[in-house]
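In the present case, backbone shapes were mapped to integers, as reproduced here:
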Amino acid sequence: METTVKEVKARQESRYRRAKTWQIGAFALNNTATNIFLYLMMFVSYYATGVVGLGTVIVSTLITMSRMWDGITDPIIGLWIDKTDGKMGKFRPFMIMGWVVMTIITLLMFFTTHLVPENMRLIYFIILYLVYIVGYTFQTACTKAGQTVLTNDPEQRPLFSTFDMSYTSLLFAGAAMYVSNYMVPKHGGFTESFFHEFVITVVIASGVMTAIAVAGLWEHDRTENFGTGGVQEPIKLKDMFNIIKGNRPLQMLIVAASTDKLASTVSTNSIVMVMLFGILIGDYGVFGSISAITMIPVLILIQIGTRYARKFGSKKALVVSTWMCIALYSAMFLLLWLGDPSQIRMTDMNAMSIAFVTLYILATGVRNVSGGIVIPMIPDITDYEVYKNDRYAPGVMGTIFSFVDKMISSLGQTVIGILLAYIGFKEVFPSVDTPPSEEIFWVTMFLFVGMMILGWVASLIAMKFYELDDKRMAEIQMELADRRDAKKAAIEQ
């Protein structure tokens, strides 16, 4: 029996298409390349209002409505990717095209909008912003879809999350220091010169990362690695609805990831952070200090979490990390409820401070693992669709996922606004000068902890009906390898 098991395992190993570690690490930079532009655009409202002179209400409304446009373009671009198979492959053209479009648009937006005649500025800005979103979607869609050709080894796929989450953590921590400690003092705030230097820096950094990501995918972005190999059946618009209707793992992953994303969007919102640190704890500076010291521990926890996923499968890693998140956030709630939050200070590491900082670091790290492990699960459901219906649709699969995710997560600000209006904050949001109250405490706890736990409970329920664990994925990859061999043999005859 032992020999048989070894023989089966050896056969499985021989059928996997693997990537070199450097290729996975290089391709993960594609997500970082777009995240740099995303970070830049977090400041676009300051440019639009402070430099261009557009109204705050107009800009806020435009940015909110742009998420709808973002969601609409996702499946269209996904279909376009799936129909593409040229000399440059399926994904590399969109990665390069995405960077080029974002580069041209951001240079035009931040260098010329304020020079346009005043009565045309809004229309000019809107057109540029909408085209920017198309470029952004070109490149981001490839992050999820491109993993399908990079590797089909269930043990190797979670390695993408190791690189991706590490890059993201370093990017946002480094970018925050770059802007607050260097750029703002140098330019005296969010001035015209601030945005000129910022844009050029982002374009160069993103361009380098995109080039490295393209190099990482170069060897694998070929027709023989698409689905079961060879020319694929073209994906049509109606196929998108059939995919959603018939792919249970996709449905369950959307439920798990979108509820977590909505909860995380609420929990980490700047208003909620002001309420927790500025009002309940009474020192908003604690937030900045604790954010700085979480970076290294979070990177360590990411390494541990993704190693676990590689050994036991992404599904099990998601379930285990979700249970840990529930436990850690529940402990934080009990600490803040039964203890005195106003004792928490980074300059006075008393028992309350030590307990909160420890729980906050652990919870942040494990939450990143729980959220990040979803990305390598998307190529799993893409392979499942090939296995079940012989439809290779990585672009559509990834953008369907993004569309639902964006639509649901966009409700975050609405949830916060409704609850704050309920306790009296109808005109202005709470600030660090707002005195603490019992109503603020319970609303903060629901937004910071309660929403997260509700999202994680939904994830655990969804994972009960998600069949793609490590053993099932091994079976699927074996079957797909057999189909590829059969198709290749038929062509050769």
Notes: The longest helix spans residues 159-187. The two ends are 37 Å apart (CA to CA). The chain is about 80% helix and 0% strand. The mean pLDDT is 85.
